[in-house]
Automatic annotation (TrEMBL):
Keywords: Signal. InterPro entries: PLC-like_Pdiesterase_TIM-brl. This is Phospholipase D. One of its GO terms (biological process) is lipid metabolic process.
Length: 327
């Protein structure tokens, strides 16, 4: 249907020219009445760069987070590519926890095996600062039912405390549209010094969510925002209000001071312009790799480009090392 495609293209271009925020599928258009970050930005005056520099007494650590590292081969590739943090999908099954996007029948190794491998690499000198657990079904098993506790969120927390944390690896518990469940509350109420909580979403709604439901400690609140293709609905970083655009949302979150860390996702090779835009607005890290697939050798170029981009902003950033505590 060429005519329809042409009309859609015209509409899209017009929206960009007029500055109208284009809304991502699945997100509702809620007025940004409490855009604290944006109001603070305007109140302090000046450019985005001015705001960033005013709040930075020294260089800040940056996290190059390898995407969908769900098996041993992917882990080794990511570490050899220079990743200093790992994003891992976690899936609860009747056999326990698996590092898998879709379940153990699809891909991945057991969570225990993966955690042991991460711990060995960290002990061997690799600068793995934290593992980001993208938990797909955190409420599948009831931690209060001893028959099923082994696949519950409590068992997963026990596992990271047994294997990862004694080696100095921090843990980020990620909840995506599951932050209203019992698993979220259990983790929130029992965070230790090596743990934090991530929720993906827009700055103002998440500020409200964290304010009402916790955690109260800002350092433990981690916001992420993005798209499998980081360039989709990226914006120009300076749109006003609640623009459903990646760079603007992350700018507002970083400027607000209401979140301990802000992370964007997912940058592939050849997308340095987006990574560098996020560096200019003060994000703390970027997930890189393949937006819709597990980590493989093709992600090496994206990792190299991130390091090159950091070099351009060496007055603001350095690549986080083993001794950096993100929360």
């Amino acid at each position: 249907m060429p005519a329809l495609s042409y009309l859609v293209s015209v509409f899209y271009a017009a929206a960009l020219v007029l500055g109208s925020p284009l809304i991502k599928a699945g997100q509702h258009d809620k007025p940004f009445a409490q855009d604290v970050a944006y109001q603070n930005l305007n109140a302090r005056g000046g450019s985005i760069d001015t705001i960033f520099n005013a709040g930075a007494a020294s260089k800040k650590p940056f996290y190059a987070i390898a995407h969908r590292v769900n098996d041993m081969d992917a882990l080794l590739l990511a570490l050899n590519d220079g990743a200093n943090a790992i994003e891992m999908d976690l899936f609860a099954e009747i056999t326990g926890w698996w590092a898998s996007h879709d379940g153990p029948s699809k891909n991945g190794d057991t969570a225990r095996d993966m955690f042991n491998a991460v711990a060995r690499h960290r002990k061997g000198g690799k600068p793995i600062t934290f593992v980001w657990l993208d938990i797909k079904n955190p409420d599948r098993c009831d931690p209060d039912d001893q028959t099923w506790r082994f696949c519950s969120i409590a068992a997963l927390q026990d596992l990271v405390r047994e294997i990862l944390e004694p080696q100095g690896v921090r843990v980020l518990f990620g909840f995506y549209h599951t932050e209203n469940g019992n698993a979220y509350r259990l983790i929130r109420d029992d965070l230790n010094s090596k743990e934090a909580i991530n929720v993906d979403g827009r700055a103002a709604p998440l500020l409200e969510e964290f304010t009402v439901n916790g955690p109260a400690d800002v350092r433990k609140r981690v916001l992420s925002y993005g798209d499998p293709n980081i360039g989709y609905l990226f914006g120009n970083c300076s749109e006003p209000g609640d623009a459903h655009l990646t760079c603007t949302q992350l700018r507002q979150a970083a400027a607000s001071g209401a979140f301990g860390k802000t992370f964007g996702w997912t940058a592939a090779a050849g997308q340095t312009q987006y990574v560098e835009a996020l560096l200019r607005v003060g994000v703390d890290g970027v997930i890189y790799g393949l937006g819709g697939a597990d980590y493989d050798g093709s992600a090496a170029q994206a990792a190299k480009e991130i390091r090159n981009s950091l070099g351009k902003y060496s007055d603001r950033y350095y690549l986080a090392g083993k001794d950096d505590n993100p929360w």
